[in-house]
Amino acid sequence: MYGKCRVCGGAVREFIDLGRQPSANAFLLPDEVDGEFLFRLAAGSCEKCSMVQLLEEVPQTVRYHEGYRYRASGSAGHRRHFEENARRFLRDELTGRDAFIVEIGCNDGVMLATVADAGVRHLGVEPSANVAEEARAKGVEVREDFFDETTAAEIRDEHGPARVVFGANTICHIAHIDSVLRGVDALLGPGGIFVFEEPYLGTVLEQGAFDQIYDEHVFYFSVTSVREMAARFGFDLVDAERIPLHGGEIRYTLARTGERPVAASVGRMVAEERTRGLSSPDALARFGDNVRRVRDDLVTLLQGLRDDGRRVVGYGAPGKATTVTNLCGIGTDLVPFVCDSTPDKQGRLVPGSHLPVRPPEEFARPYPDYALLFAWNHAEEIMAKEEEFRRAGGRWIRYVPTVTVT
């Protein structure tokens, strides 16, 4: 099956279909399950520019609203990462007398709070009213809006040009990427940079991280596809850097064509992707085969544990949990509930599968025999915190890249 590329208009060949799925972060109250929004979660690769993307788009107003549940500051590791990002921008880019930075999708202000504390001009653009209010409580200036070329022009008229435009786990969410890039071009001053950090296609494929595919992630960037996309809108990809966030991401830096030198890392990573055949039909087909194998192995394991009278509890309720529970048909007969530290998710249900979300205290009342680790990208932090579970004889179930019990 084919679709049309959102970047170049080329043909997009489907390589994975994860079935009917809900919006990943639309956690429901028990009386809201009737009429739940569903769509076909399938991804394909553009045969012209190699951009991997969803075939169907969920309207952004369905994904981002006043009840949005994700908090970027929910992990201590995330907080450290974004504080370091802010300090780096303050040291290297925001040094002029009237420096200005704009963050697309600032969420709860975890990055811009450090910039605000330094007294540097800034603006977060955030469409979800609830997290925007949390950012304001940290001293961050926020505009409640979606970012596009119209928004960008209005920001420049009001605040002047930006030295830095930044986005983290946001740019790959925006289907109208053409309008975003035109907006960045309108907003940046001379010599300015556009920096964004996003899940890396190479990591998704290598780890078999199929649960990174959900409605919010419209695009799955590679260095090759980002370089191609940048050139179409008058930018150079001047740097590409691996970062550990979410199991492995890339920090991309764009500047207008010819304004900054291109780091050697860009050409090196493009060559690596070419050698690996990163987005080749064969590589994508192997990924699909692995997803189906993991699905079957995980369901078989959970059914066997249930039949043996073992108790399994889910740990973490990120958007990824929606993909895996719905793909695998994991219901309360296999996993009676999920523990998560996000207050806004507690007392609600995982979309689609309708697993109850409970506070982390419930994990030890009493400890289960097994914990299914949905928040696998925080495994080190979580396992260190839950050492008592291990001492009590508990075991962890992981499914990326394969189903394992440790």
Automatic annotation (TrEMBL):
Signal sequence segment: none
Domain of life: Bacteria
Listed Pfam families: Methyltransf_13, Methyltransf_14, Methyltransf_23
Domain Methyltransferase putative zinc binding: 5-61
Molecular function terms from GO: methyltransferase activity
Record keywords, A-Z: Methyltransferase, Transferase
A GO BP entry: methylation
Domain C-methyltransferase: 244-401
Coiled-coil intervals, chain numbering: none
Protein name: Class I SAM-dependent methyltransferase
